[in-house]
Amino acid sequence: MNFPLVYHPQYVAPLPDKHRFPMLKFRLLYELLLADKLVGTQDIYTPKSPDLELIKLIHTSDYVTSYCQGTIDPKSQRRIGLPWSQELVQRTLIAVGGTILTAKLALKYGLASNTAGGTHHAFPNYGSGFCIFNDLAIASRVLQKLGLVKKVLIVDLDVHQGDGTAVIFQDDPTVFTFSVHCEANFPGRKQKSDLDIPLPEGLDDDGYLQILAKYLPDLLSQVKPDLVLYDAGVDIHVGDHLGKLAVTDTGLYRREMQVLSTCVNAGYPVASVIGGGYAKDLSKLVYRHSLLHRASRDIL
Question: What domains sit in the chain, N to C, each tagged with a CATH number?
Answer without folding.
Answer: 5-299 (3.40.800.20)
